[in-house]
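Checklist before submission:
- one chain only
- standard amino acids only
- sequence pasted in full

Submission:
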Amino acid sequence: MAKMVESPSASCVEHPVIVQLLGCRQELSLKTEEPSLQHQALTQLVAQHFEVSPPFSFSSDQGAFLEDAEALAEAVKAGSVIVVHLGATALHDFGRRVRQLRNLQWGLVSQQLEKVRVESVVHMIPGGACSCRKSAETILGEQFAEFRLEVKQTLQLRLENLQEAMEQRLRRLEESWEQRLGSALAAMSSERSPKEKDPEQRAEFEGLSDLLRTECKRVAESVDDLREECREALQREVRARLEHHRKLQEEFRQEAKARLQVASKLEQEIQAIQESASSARSTSCHEVEGVRQRVLVEPRREVLLPFATFAEPVTAGAGSPMSSYPASLHGETPGSPGTVHVRLPA
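Returned file contents:
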C-alpha cells in the first residue's frame, strides 16, 4: 500500500513510527507528542493507512504488549517496531472483503462464459462430432432413398405412357388396314365368282398383301426405334440424376467436415475456459488459506505471551546469565512466532 504523506503543522511535529500488520511493515508519521494521545492517534493512523477497522492492540517486536499509553510512548520514543493485532471487527471486515473478491472473480468467469455462448452452441450441436457425422449420414441416406423412389416413379410413368401410345397407334393401323382389305375383298367377290377371276385383280390383291406386310414391318421397326430412343433418354436422365446426387453427397461431406472442425474448436475453447475458471478458483483458495494461516498465528501469541510476562524464566544451564525476557525470545527475529517455556511461581 502507498505510504501516507502528511504536511507537518506549526503546533505538532511528526515522528516516524515503524508499524507491522500481518507481516507487512510500513513506516508511518505520528503527529502528536503527548503520551496520552499517542494511542488514539496511532489507532486512527493504522485504520486510515491499512484500511482496517479498530479496535487494535499493540505490542513491541520483543513480544511485550503495550497496554497503556506510557508503554506505547516509550516504545515509539525508543524507535521499536509496533506490532498491530487485529480485533474481531477487523477480522470480520477482512473476511467480507475476501468474499467480495471471490464473488468478483466468479462474476468475471460468468461474463466470459456468456460471451462465448457455450449453451447456445451446445444446443446447436448436442452431441459434438458423433452427432454431426450421424446426422450427415442420416440426411444423405434419406435423400438417396427419396431420389431412388422419385426416379422409379418417373420411369414407370413414362413407360406406361409410351406403352399406351404404342398400343393406340398399332390399334389404329390394324383397323385401317383391316377396313381396306375387307373392302377390297368384298369388291372382288361381288364382281366375279371364283371361276371367273381375272389375273389382273389377283395381281392387285397380291400387291395389296405385299404392301400390308411392308407397312407392318415398317411399323414394327418404328416401334423398335421408339423403344430404343426411350431407353436412351431414360439412361441419360438416370446418369444426370446420379451425377447430381454425387454432387449433393460431396457437398454434405464438406459441410459435415466443416461442422466437425467447428465442434472441435468449440470444445477446445470450452476446455480453455474451464481451465481458467479452475485456476482462478485455486488461486482464490490459496490466498484465503495464506491469510487464514497468518491470522491464526497472532492469537496464539496473544495467549502465550501474558504468561511469559509474569512467569519466572527457565535458564538453559547453571552458568547462563539471567535475562529480563523469556529464554525462548533471545534467538527470535522481530515479529516471528516462537514457543515460550515458563515456570509458574509456587
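Reviewer check: Residues 95 and 288 are 9 Å apart (CA to CA).
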